């Protein structure tokens, strides 16, 4: 179980996650890295669910990014289509967030591709706690995206027994800042 949250604010997109790996009600590891930066395409990914399944999805997503020359939307659509249509992949138990400088998407095995309306989205067992905290912080503070992600993950870790405070946080600047 885990918590992954993404916040898009001003010229930043930030994805963060905790490091807890649980097997049933037992914490097996506290330092897993569930947020990764794909430097070649300037994309951040985060996953929740079965680790082996999530790594399989990460590999497939990277292949789709290559195939679509870094076009994140086409890669996301192709991954969702493949994930939903393949009998073996359909059994994978994971969710995935992907973000580049301009877009953020949640991808599920049921074929869902969700782009958050307000720039805030979360997945995992503590996802709803982190989502609520991030939305409140975005609406009621001037914190930067990175600080919102960090504080919302800390709040989730204080509430959710399947989330810890060993955080991995990655960020990108938007193309507006690059101009």
UniProtKB/TrEMBL annotation:
A GO-annotated cellular component: HslUV protease complex
Subcellular location: Cytoplasm
EC numbers on record: 3.4.25.2
GO molecular function: metal ion binding; threonine-type endopeptidase activity
Biological process annotations from GO: proteolysis involved in protein catabolic process
InterPro entries, A to Z: ATP-dep_Prtase_HsIV_su, Ntn_hydrolases_N, Proteasome_sua/b, Proteasome_suB-type
Protease recorded as keyword: yes
Catalytic residues (UniProt): 2
Domain of life: Bacteria
Swiss-Prot/TrEMBL catalytic activity: ATP-dependent cleavage of peptide bonds with broad specificity
Regulation: Allosterically activated by HslU binding.
Keywords: Allosteric enzyme, Cytoplasm, Hydrolase, Metal-binding, Protease, Sodium, Threonine protease
UniProt keyword Cytoplasm, yes or no: yes
Pfam family, one: Proteasome
Binding site for Na(+): 157, 160, 163
Predominant place of localization: cytoplasm
HAMAP family to which the protein is assigned, alphabetical: HslV (MF_00248)
Recorded family membership: Belongs to the peptidase T1B family. HslV subfamily.
Function as written in the Swiss-Prot or TrEMBL entry: Protease subunit of a proteasome-like degradation complex believed to be a general protein degrading machinery.
NCBIfam families according to UniProt: ATP_dep_HslV, PRK05456.1
Complex and partners: A double ring-shaped homohexamer of HslV is capped on each side by a ring-shaped HslU homohexamer. The assembly of the HslU/HslV complex is dependent on binding of ATP.
Entry protein name: ATP-dependent protease subunit HslV
Organism in which the protein naturally occurs: Amphritea japonica ATCC BAA-1530
Gene: hslV
């Amino acid at each position: 179980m885990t918590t992954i949250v993404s916040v898009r604010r001003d010229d930043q997109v930030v994805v963060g996650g905790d490091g807890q790996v649980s097997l049933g009600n037992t914490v097996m590891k506290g330092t897993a890295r569930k947020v990764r930066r794909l430097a070649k395409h300037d994309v951040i990914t985060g996953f929740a669910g079965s680790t082996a399944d999530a790594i399989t999805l990460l590999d497939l997503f990277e292949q789709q990014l290559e195939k679509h020359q870094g076009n994140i939307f086409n890669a996301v659509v192709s991954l969702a289509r493949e994930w939903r249509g393949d009998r073996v992949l359909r059994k994978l138990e994971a969710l995935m967030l992907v973000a580049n400088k301009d877009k953020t998407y949640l991808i599920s095995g049921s074929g869902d591709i969700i782009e958050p309306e307000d720039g805030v989205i979360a997945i995992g067992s503590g996802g709803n706690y982190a989502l609520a905290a991030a939305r409140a912080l975005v609406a009621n503070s001037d914190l930067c995206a990175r600080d919102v992600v960090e504080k919302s993950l800390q709040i989730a870790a204080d509430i959710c027994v399947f989330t810890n405070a060993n955080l991995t946080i990655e960020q990108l600047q938007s193309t507006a800042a690059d101009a």
